[in-house]
Design goal:
Oligomer: single chain
Bound molecules: zinc ion
Distance between the termini: 61 Å
Helix content: 40-55%
Shape: globular
Radius of gyration: 21 Å
Number of domains: 1
Strand content: 15-25%
Strand order of the largest sheet: 7-4-1-2-3-8
């Protein structure tokens, strides 16, 4: 069989506000805007904080004396909350600075908890009864349930709206499995496209932008993203104050 490939190109309407896609993943936040700028922020520190404090709190749970347990639990869970809060505030402040002037497009992740904690009726080999049993294991559930994606989205949402720009949500579906540049398939555990080497998260953003716009402008964008290069940062490196000095988005 012979194939005929007809490429289509779409001109971008500059009268409508530019979009900026923010893709929140467990260990990274990827930002791609419609001008071809791209940032990838490593947020694995957030997960490390959650992991370390979960371990600590589990040890505290085993203490016999309830009074000491209560005091220690409050101390360390409070400390975890404040550390996460601080990091997220700095990160979202920075994100709201770099996305200023654009419509923010984010994934609707509200039903993800339901998917994580999903149970099916199955034979439970320990109680020898048919019961609702979790599909996912305990460690994975704890890890994903402590993932603060909604908090990040919420903080970014209000900061962006405070700057006077719109935020929209849409349902992500199959945004990361097909490469936006070469059309190749990206398997769930692969970090880059096996054919052209496009980063999985950047690809997801480009596909989201394409879906959001309703037509294909992602190819030309992926080229400009490649040309500009992606700026990789760590979550604890971002400094909103420093950016404000250099920023060309300043309102003044
Ligand atoms: Zn590819």
């Amino acid at each position: 069989m012979n194939w005929v490939i007809v490429p289509f190109k779409q001109e971008i309407d500059l009268t409508r506000p530019d979009e900026c896609i923010v893709d929140v993943n467990e260990c990274s936040v990827t930002v791609v805007d419609s001008s071809g700028n791209c940032w990838k922020i490593d947020t694995s520190k957030l997960r490390a904080i959650h992991e370390a404090y979960s371990r600590k709190l589990r040890r505290i749970q085993r203490i016999g004396d309830s009074k000491i347990k209560k005091v220690l639990y409050a101390k360390y869970s409070g400390r975890r909350k404040r550390r996460v809060h601080d990091l997220l505030h700095k990160l979202t402040k920075w994100l709201s600075e770099i996305t200023k002037g654009k419509t923010l497009v984010m994934e609707d992740l509200r039903n993800i908890r339901k998917a994580i904690n999903y149970k099916v009726k199955k034979f439970n080999k320990f109680s020898k009864r048919i019961q609702p049993v979790s599909l996912r294991n305990k460690n994975l559930k704890r890890r994903l349930n402590t993932w603060s994606f909604r908090k990040l989205q919420f903080l970014l949402d209000y900061k962006h709206k405070l700057n006077g720009f719109d935020v929209v949500y849409f349902n992500p579906h199959k945004t990361s499995s097909i490469c936006s540049r070469c059309g190749g398939k990206i398997a769930p555990m692969e970090k880059t496209c096996p054919k052209c080497g496009l980063d999985r998260d950047i690809n997801a953003c480009l596909n989201m932008l394409k879906m959001w716009r309703g037509s294909g402008s992602a190819e030309s964008l992926s080229v400009s993203v490649m040309k500009l290069g992606c700026q990789g940062l760590y979550a604890d490196e971002v400094n909103p104050a420093e950016l404000r000095g250099k920023s060309n988005f300043s309102t003044a």
